[in-house]
Design a protein that fits this description.
two-stranded antiparallel ribbon; about 150 residues; alpha+beta; about 20% strand; 4-stranded antiparallel sheet
Amino acid sequence: MIDSEYPLYQKGNPQLRVFLPNFWMKLVKPTVEQPKNVVQFITSVQMTNHDIKNYLEKIYKIPVIEVNTTIVSGEFKKQPDHQYVIKDDDYRRALVTLPRGAEFEFPEVFPEEVKEKEDEALAKHRKELRKGYVGFTSKCKKRPGVPGWFGL
């Protein structure tokens, strides 16, 4: 660890120093059906089970019974049109168990009436895109799969 990451402590310095760790947590929907009192988070690899429990209890006042974590390795991807491979960052998947009787429900971010308006606008937009795409590809009917701008 590099010493320059944290401010230097000098004896007699009147400033109160607070050291905040570089931790983060992201609430995600689990891919597998879980009980109502189990919540899934994605966190940084440096966080331990104890850190996750303290983070939720002290900052968000959430009672935590148990924390189970696994480290997930990031995906390897070949960069298109290049000779190198890219690896996504590793992360820690945490399943947090809340007390019996406690239930967690994901909030409804978009109400139904907003979704309906967005669906209408999205359908109109898709129709316009399709019309433009058909006009674009119709220039090269004799050569399927070749874009319209490629014609001679």
